[in-house]
Design brief:
Radius of gyration: 15 Å
Shape: elongated
Low-confidence stretches: none
Number of strands: 11
Largest sheet: 7 strands, mixed
Number of helices: 0
Mean pLDDT: 94
Length: about 130
């Protein structure tokens, strides 16, 4: 299985910056895509940013131009640089990974895929 460990959350004032980091670990896996989601109190979890193994990125309209997602494939790490933070960015941020997993005979017949989540890290932006 795959474990995701987030770090970098915290409290900042309006207009400030934070960087979130998420590192995947486990016995054997390949990461197809990694995402950052967030969930504010009383709201549904929403996709913030996504990056594929090929480097294609997508952003929610609310963060485009302010947030940047990047990935270090060699370290199985995804970063989220957040700038010009607003109070409405306050939420718990979750790392998510779509992974391919080997089967009993390795990478071939029997291999599978899975979705994995981190525990979340709190980001609070005060006005």
């Amino acid at each position: 299985q795959v474990q995701l460990k987030e770090s970098g959350g915290g409290s900042v004032q309006f207009g400030g910056s934070l960087r979130l980091s998420c590192t995947a670990s486990g016995s054997e896996f390949r990461i197809d895509a990694m995402d950052w989601y967030r969930q504010a109190p009383g709201k549904q979890r929403e996709l913030v940013a996504r990056i594929t193994s090929g480097g294609t990125t997508n952003y929610a309209d609310s963060v485009r131009g302010r947030f940047t997602i990047s990935r270090d494939n060699g370290e199985n790490t995804v970063l989220l640089e957040m700038k010009t933070l607003k109070p409405e960015d306050t939420a718990v941020y979750f790392c998510h990974a779509e992974c391919a997993l080997p089967g009993p005979w390795g990478w071939g017949p029997g291999s599978s895929s899975g979705d994995f989540w981190g525990q979340g890290t709190q980001v609070t932006v005060s006005s």
